[in-house]
Amino acid sequence: METRSNHVLVGAVVLILLAVLAIFTVWIARLGGTASKEYDIFFKQSVDGLAKGSAVTFSGVPSGQVKDIALWRNDPQFVRVRISVNDDTPVLQGTTATISGVGFTGVSQVSLDGARKGAPSITCPDQPSPNDCPYGVPVIPTKQGGLGAILNSAPQLLERLSTLTERLTGLLSDRNQASIAGILENTNRLSDALADRGPEIAATLAQTRIAIQQAGDAAQQIGQLAQTTNGVLADDVKPAMQNLNKAIASAQQSADTLNAAIQDARPGLQAFSKQTIPEVGQLVRDLRVMSQSLSSVAEKVDQQGAGSLIGQQKLPDYKGK
């Protein structure tokens, strides 16, 4: 009975010591370890190669591990990945997460990068919305990495590759091959013809170069002529135009003066035309009659002498036979 009691006592003491040792070990581990923070990442892509315990790196530095992987119940297109990182990891505003492969082993890891100096840490707001912190921890936005881009674009790449293969097959049919061969043959003939006409082409190019040079000289001369013409217009034509304008102004002034004089002389001209001109006409007629009379008298004096003006003409004496 006493032996049995001793065994129970010894067993109880051993269990107490083991429990104390376990508690001490956990305490030591907590003292020696570092605190960690948890974040959620929602990937809209395949997470092949990622599993619980997979590494989490920040700019290539190991900083934590993956704690949980599950489909997001609100939207099955997304995969929720819960990660735990060291407390001193700078998960700040602007930090993004991607999935990257580790060598050629098929194992993947979560890569964080993009922290900016002075930016605030990613935290949950005081009143988080379902999109901010749906599971009570901050959410790190994603950025499509090289592996994710390849995996997401693989179907489109395969479809385009298939379409390209079909088009190449149709392009390389027997008929098209014959056409391509004809085109190549014509190209060879054209190349040979151009090679044979090389000297003529060179001469033509030389003449073209000379013609272009002459055209440039002619354009320069035309420019000089235009400058000279502008100078002549400025030096000679403009003063002449000014003198002509002055002459026109003077002529206009003279015409105005003449018009005024005519207006003033118009009453006298009307009286002259109505009274004086008829009287002058009558005077001219009288002078014409008087002139005729004087002509008759002069003729009579010439024929009969001055006595004819005093008496009558004496008849000759008649003598009988």
Automatic annotation (TrEMBL):
UniProt keyword Ribosomal protein present: no
Annotated transmembrane regions: 7-29
Keywords per UniProt: Membrane, Transmembrane, Transmembrane helix
Mce/MlaD domain: residues covered: 43-113
Superkingdom in the source lineage: Bacteria
InterPro entries, per the entry: Mce/MlaD
Magnesium among keywords: no
Record-linked PANTHER family: BLL5892 PROTEIN, MCE_MLAD DOMAIN-CONTAINING PROTEIN
Identification of the protein by name: Phospholipid/cholesterol/gamma-HCH transport system substrate-binding protein
Species whose genome carries this gene: Sphingomonas jinjuensis
